[in-house]
Amino acid sequence: MPIFATAVRWFLTAGLCLAALTGTRPLLAADPPSGPGVGPVKKVEVGPLDAAKAKEGAAVFETKCSACHKLDERYVGPALKGVTQRRQPEWIMNMILNPEEMAHEDPTAQKLLGEHMVQMTFQNVSQDDARKILEYFRQVDGAGAAAK
Amino acid sequence: MRTKTLVKLVVVAVGVLAVAFAARAAKEARSLAANAAQRVYVAPGSYDEFYAFMSGGFSGQVSVYGLPSGRLFRVIPVFSANPENGYGYAEETKPLLMTSHGPVPWDDTHHPELSQTKGVPDGRWLFINANNTPRIARIDLRSFETVEIIEIPNAGGQHASPFTTENGEYIVAGTRFSVPIPQQDVAISSFKDNFKGTLSFIKVDPESGRMSLAFQLLMPGFNYDLAHCGKGPSHGWCFYTSYNSEQAHTLLEVNASKNDKDFVAAVNWRRAEECIAQGKAKTLPTKYYHNHLDEGSRIAKSEVIDSEPVLEPASCEGVVYFLPTPKSPHGVDVDSTGRYIVAGGKLSSTIPVHSFEKIQAAIAGKKIATTIAGVPVLEFEAVLAGEVPNACLGPLHNEFDGKGYAYTSCFLSSEVIKWQLETWKIVDRIPTYYSIGHLMIPGGDSAKPWGKYLVAMNKITKDRYLPTGPELTQSAQLIDITGDKMQLLLDFPTVGEPHYAQAIPADLLVEKSTRMFPLENNTHPYATKTEKDARVERQGKDVHVYLTSIRSHFKPDNVEGVQVGDTVFFHLTNVEQDWDVPHGFAVLGAQNAELLVMPGETRTLKWEAKAPGVYPFYCTDFCSALHQEMQGYVRVSPQGSSVPLGTGAPPPAPAAPAPKG
Q1: Which of A63, A119, B177, B528 has the most CB atoms lying inside 10 A of its own CB?
Q2: At what angle do helices A127-140 and A51-64 cross, to 10 degrees?
Q3: A69-98 pLDDT, tens per residue?
Q4: What pLDDT, on a 0 to 100 scale, did the predictor assign at position B29?
Q5: How far is A120 from A68, CA to CA, in rounded Å?
Q6: Closest to A75 in 3D by CA, of B177, B328, B395, B257
Q7: Mind telling me how many Å the CA of B412 is from chain A's nearest CA?
Q8: For A120, which residue in chain B has the nearest alpha carbon?
Q9: With an 8 Å Cβ cutoff, are B12 and A127 in contact?
Q10: Which of B121-125's residues contact partners 24+ apart within 8 Å by CB, and which partners?
Q11: Among candidates B12, B20, B394 on the partner chain, residue whose Cβ is nearest the Cβ of A117
């Protein structure tokens, strides 16, 4: 378990560094853009990157998501680097908050279930925390911070 | 502001859920039979049409349900000790749970299999596997009790088991986890070099049902998952699914899902018999237990076996072939005609069907794509009869109705699909609630299914029953399959997690049922067949109490002369010879369990005398109006006491009337 946690941390750090250095572009540019998905989130305001929020999001991601998701490679679920370019912010939060219904009702999520064959679970993430995870994904994907 | 948002959110969430439930309810209403209640109602005093035997999963037992009522009326202890009736605690039953690792009081049961004659369940025995510490048990269906358990060596997670050949020539087993053979201390990362799989063939004596390990086939180190044997034209062959042909040894969830195709192993067991007769098998030193219940004494005995024949595919050409099968296949099921072998590719959305005729033609025509560890891999296209396209998500298992249709359970999409053999067309779907694993039609894996009902066995129930905290019941759903459209009739909760099940018409069992054990056949060395023989004997520090029970007293009912440090053996013979009159026996401070003793049998409870005092014992099974009077005492005296061993001194004579004056 400690080795696993270390590996996760390494991946996270590596992901962050890579994102900071290169301003990562989507890995799967061919993927069609998603709609907002199905769930409680109808509209998310996305502004300049909030680094503090992203840091909190990274911590939630590590405890609740990293057992199944890596940034750079397919694991149990898809690789998440570039997800903010592939999917709308509402879709991302709805997938975190309402994965089962998404897998039944949302065409993109249905397709993902068909590819990965594992139903994503709801990890008791609050809407606030889902928003923080979104911010973390935006940071990984090189979203800009507010100009000073 | 925050509260308002929260309220809005809750409203939205409730709205979303309401829509989801409404949609589900509408879907369910379409599949629920209009007069479902009437169709599952079994009037008081009437029997159900079928007995269903369900694996208890991690309960380690077998549960018996009536169909169509879904009434539970028996849990048969198999691999888990059961203090309720003393199974695994009574001295006579302890050897049944012995293994090469010592006594094992629990296991994980997966696949019940009824014995067959000419491909049809005959109602004689039920076999079931222990997944964790590999074993197979045989349950005698005259008495609904476990009478034999054989350990399977060189195996781990013995999942592909036990499946019968057409006439019970063999019960087959396969190892889910490959292991070093023989066991040795090696790096787990040396998996590809050191780990092997075994496919085991267990002979069943046609008269007594006694099992014996005939041989094991040594296979590449894949995970052998499930099996079924051929019938009719394919009699003589058995089929096993395998996954992890990647031979991954870590994070199989990801690493064992890389290959597009894994394999069904097709084993020609008649060819294996020839090779063994020609001396081509090696004798492997090993150690395993074979335990069985003696019919007369009803005492289980263990036998330790120290070697077994192992056959390597390379030394016996034609004994086994691999059929490429997409993708991490789980179930492998042979249709009632014996012509088609249907695999459930759990990560594939199509259901591949292999043809037995084409397999034979491919072997004759040497349509061999490659060879893995001496096992020829036949060409996929050469053996494929057809595929059910866009079937569902996560197809796992198949059963058949004997009318040309197959039924497949789909775990991910939570449904059963019905499709036609040979056209491979889906004709109906029905949702299950939720995440179905196995499905079962009475006789549905045999040559003559009773294609009236289908039972779906679900892993998840969520909102279907009253919530019971974090752990919810698993459940079964009864579906009518007599019409064109499948119709849901009933939900009922199950014991443990049901994996596979088997069912048989009640009339094949009712007449054979044992009502009691005749006293004259009781050969137990500590049996007490008449009250006049009831007694107490000492052998060193062991005290043997020869007890009888009949409504409503024990003989003796008082025991004296036991001393601190003695071990007391209560040998209780129930001398009743009537139906439905077991007697129980419980003694204060017993650290094992009670005894539940059937009419005519003898059971023994071991009890340590630890401190001076008088300890009551009593009958636990309500037997008559005077059941509460069915009791006794055991008196424990200090070591070296002069209290004589026996059934207690007579009461003191009544005192003479006091003189007047």
Answers
A1: B528
A2: 110
A3: 999 999 999 999 999 999 999 999 999 999
A4: 62
A5: 9
A6: B257
A7: 7
A8: B412
A9: no
A10: B121/B443, B121/B446, B121/B502, B121/B504, B121/B508, B122/B508, B123/B504, B123/B508, B123/B509, B123/B512, B124/B209, B125/B209
A11: B394
The pTM is what?
A: 0.89
Q: What is the pLDDT of residues A116-147, one digit of tens each?
A: 888 999 999 999 999 999 999 999 999 887 65
CA distance B367 to chain A (A): 32
Q: Distance between CA atoms of A45 and A43, rounded to whole angstroms?
A: 7
Q: How many helices (H) and strands (E) does chain A have?
A: 7, 0
**Which B residues, 541 through 600, put their C-beta within 8 Å of a C-beta on chain A?**
none
Percent of chain A at pLDDT exceeding 70: 76
Complete DSSP assignment for B438-472? EEE-TTTTSSS--TTEEEEEES--GGGS--BTB--
Q: Does any CB of chain B come closer than 8 Å to the CB of residue A43? A: no
Mean of pLDDT over chain B? 94
Tell me the per-residue pLDDT of B418-465, one tens digit each, with 9 for 90 and over: 999 999 999 999 999 999 999 999 999 999 999 999 999 999 998 999
B 10-49 residues with CB below 8 A of A? 12-13, 16, 20
How much is the ipTM here?
0.76
The residue type of A24 is T
What's the token pair of residue B243? Answer: 């996954």
3-state secondary structure of B413: coil
Q: What is the pLDDT of residue B333?
A: 98
What residue segments make up the domains of chain A, in order of their start?
A: 2-140
Residue B547 to residue B531: CA distance in whole angstroms: 8
Q: What is the amino acid identity at position B34?
A: A
Partner-chain residue, chosen from A75, A101, A114, that has the shortest CB–CB distance to B16: A101
- What DSSP assignment string belongs to B334-368? E-TTS-EEEEEETT-SSEEEEEHHHHHHHHHTT-E
In chain B, what are the domains? 50-249+257-510 (2.130.10.10), 519-637 (2.60.40.420)
The interface residues of chain B toward chain A in range 376-405, judged by CB-CB distance below 8 A, are: 393-394
Name, in order, each residue with C-beta under 8 angstroms of B446's C-beta and a sequence gap of 6 or more: B114, B116, B119, B120, B121, B231, B336
| Domain spanning A2-140: CATH 1.10.760.10 | yes
The SS3 call for residue B121 is strand
For B296-320, letters b (16+ CB in 10 Å) and e give: ebbbbebeebeebbbbbbeebeebb
Of B12, B253, B393, the CB nearest to A40: B12
Q: What is the DSSP string of B58-84?
A: TT-SEEEEEETT--EEEEE-SSS-BTT
Instruction: Decide if A99 touches B, using CB distance below 8 A.
Output: no
In the block, residue with structure tokens 């379409």 = B30
CB contact under 8 A, B16 and A74: no
Q: Tokens standing for B71?
A: 């009434």
Kindly list the residues from chain B whose CB atom is less than 8 angstroms away from the CB atom of residue A74: 254
Query: Residue B143, preceding bond cis, omega within 30 degrees?
Result: no
In chain A, the N- to C-terminal Cα span, in Å, equals 42
Residue A82, Ramachandran bin (φ over 0: left; ψ between -120 and 50: alpha; else beta): left
